[in-house]
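User: Second chain of the day. Same drill as before.
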Amino acid sequence: MRIDIPAPYRPYLRIGTCSWKYDSWKGLYYDAGTRYHADDYLADYARYLDSVEVDQWFWSLFPGGVRLPEPRTVSTYATSVPDDFKFTIKAPNALTLTHFYARQPRHHVEFAGRPNIYFLDNELLERFLGLLAPLGDKIGPIMFQFEYLSRSKMPSCEVFLERFGEFITKAPRGFDYSIEIRNPGYLSQRFFEALAGNGIGFVYLEGYHMPPIDTVFDRFQPATAAHSVIRLHGGDRLEIEKQTGEIWNRIVAPKPRGLQAAVRIVRANMKRKIGTFVNVNNHFEGSAPVTVERFLALLKNGDIETPQKGEGGEASQDGDAPRDGDAPRDGEQFDLFTDNEES
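Assistant: Same format as last time:
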């Protein structure tokens, strides 16, 4: 029952969603008559798709300390999927945040904006990867997702690349590392050369105030490693949650440009023998499983089905509503590839 990826693409393409525990996917990936518990979804999900993005271990930096994966959870995920399955995994934000988030619970306000001692800490990375050992060969790209870095957090792209380079050269071998940034101004030939020098995959992000992925691709043609990731996130999170009522079973905000861009990148990567993981979020169009179908239709036929009347119109290609630190201050926008002079 796996989705049918055209034969020429199979060695170079995996399609998955961002998380998977959604009751509103019943009738799409899950049985309508079954009552699912939290550990039940993944086995049924893996009947259709051969990869998934794990987001839950990203949220790790708390005033009480760093939270890392529970061994039981890792083992459950490992035994829920077949041997050819891959997990794309977001590394803990304890590794990628320079400071604690400004928004903290009232009883922990003293942590707001405090420097994070675990930023790019190799010992913490080793601990995290060690806990993933039960997943074995099912581990796909490890993604380092960085928030928008103001100049008060990171003086320049050059300083960032120097610090990340020192960190990644000491990282355990045998893993496919990838990087996602939220600073348009960091995207440059120098940036991609630095990634290529360390064999780090690039994460194309459609959303979060970053330039559209087709614009990034046309300008830089990234080929930094044997793998890359496309994350389709889409427009305003709060708006699409209002449109869907957080029932994620239909398209409410179709984004053909983002889908067409993803297909172009996948095709170009296949010709260059670069593997691509396409990770689709519910917030991209309203239903990740339906978006997967639309992506495949475009890949196979060069056309996508037009949503039925009442399923929403074309939405902005801007990013999701920013979480703390993910984007410019409210109301600000960036010129493509140019950061504001924020301090």
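The first strand starts at residue 13 and ends at 17.

User: Great, on to the next one.
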